[in-house]
Design goal:
With 96 residues, this protein is mainly alpha-helical. The chain is built from three helices and no strands. Helix 1 packs across helix 2. The protein starts with 19 loop residues before the first helix and ends with a helix. The mean pLDDT is 90.
């Protein structure tokens, strides 16, 4: 049985008031891309939304990571047995 591509059904609606110049610009861009204005606008809006979310998450993760790093520097944990053994082995090899 051949596989068919499932296209999601568009059920939601989004409206925007724009100027004549904006509409002409968008129509021209859609025409150059060989697509409908609706498909062009939806694609570009989805790309912009995904980029905004990605940028926010990257900045947020950087802040969280920086906070964890600074906390680790200011309040380092006690070395465990493996770290103590490694330090002793290093000192022995370096003649300290």
């Amino acid at each position: 049985m051949p596989r068919t591509l499932r296209v999601p059904i568009r059920q939601e609606r989004l409206e925007a008031r724009i100027t004549s110049a904006q509409k002409s610009l968008i129509e021209r861009a859609a025409q150059l891309r060989g697509t409908t204005v609706t498909d062009y606008v939806v694609t570009k809006m989805q790309e912009a939304a995904a980029e905004t979310i990605r940028d926010y998450e990257i900045l947020n993760l950087r802040d969280e990571s920086r906070e964890l790093f600074v906390r680790a520097l200011l309040n380092p944990p006690e070395p465990n047995d493996a770290a103590k053994t490694a330090a002793a082995r290093y000192k022995k090899r370096m003649g300290q």
